[in-house]
């Protein structure tokens, strides 16, 4: 097996176990499982005409209905501090994780504010709510797009 070396850039603490680095390196920023599930729910409802990770909109929403100016963010409960399921931060490096997750939350709010300032409607879909009932979340999007 080829051994892999990870370059540390100072943004994250060095983990106690190298397997943690391997696991963390596999975490995606785009096309995550919740995003793919949301797109499947939209497709099942016949909702089309969106762009993925639309860079011309402030905050680069996960899904954007450009003509309707509707931006959709699909948030993972852990990474974005879900207000519904209230997942806990890891116990190791807890100070770093608390700061990291709070920074993510503040960035999400900033992105929403930027989009609303230029006239976009913003919808946030949480991973736990999507798992519980994807159709309800797709219906929320449909209502916003149909307005």
Description:
The model has no long low-confidence stretch (mean pLDDT 87). The chain is built from five helices and four strands. The longest helix has 24 residues, at 94-117. The chain has one domain: Endonuclease, Chain A, CATH 3.40.960. It is 43% helix and 12% strand. It is α+β, with helices and mostly antiparallel strands. The chain has helices at 18-25, 33-44, 94-117, 127-132, 134-146, and strands spanning 51-52, 63-65, 70-75, 121-126. It is globular. Helix 2 (33-44) packs across helix 5 (134-146). The protein has a four-stranded mixed beta sheet, with helices on both faces. Strand 2 and strand 3 form a beta hairpin.
User: What can be said about the biggest beta sheet?
Assistant: 4 strands, mixed
Q: What is the mean pLDDT?
A: 87
Residue runs with pLDDT of under 50 for 5 or more positions:
none
- Per DSSP E runs of 2 or more residues, the count of β-strands stands at 4
> How are the strands of the largest sheet arranged?
1-2-3-4
| Percentage of residues in helical conformation | 40-55%
- Tell me which CATH architecture applies here: 3-Layer(aba) Sandwich
CATH H-level superfamily title = VSR Endonuclease
- Count of helix runs: 5
Succession of helices and strands: HHEEEHEHH
Helix/strand structural class: alpha+beta
How much strand? 5-15%
Oligomer: single chain
Distance between the termini: 55 Å
Label the overall shape: globular
């Amino acid at each position: 097996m080829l051994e892999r070396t990870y370059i540390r850039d100072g943004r994250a603490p060095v983990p106690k176990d190298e397997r943690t680095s391997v696991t963390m390196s596999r975490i995606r920023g785009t096309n995550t499982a919740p995003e793919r599930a949301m797109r499947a729910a939209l497709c099942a409802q016949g909702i089309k005409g969106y762009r993925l990770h639309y860079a011309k909109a402030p905050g680069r929403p996960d899904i954007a209905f450009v003509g309707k100016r509707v931006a959709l963010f699909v948030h993972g409960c852990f990474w974005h501090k879900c207000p519904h399921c209230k997942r806990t931060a890891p116990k190791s490096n807890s100070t770093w994780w608390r700061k990291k997750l709070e920074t993510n939350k503040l960035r999400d709010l900033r992105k929403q504010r930027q989009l609303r300032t230029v006239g976009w409607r913003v919808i946030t879909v949480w991973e736990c709510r999507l798992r519980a009932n994807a159709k309800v979340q797709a219906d929320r999007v449909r209502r916003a797009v149909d307005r």
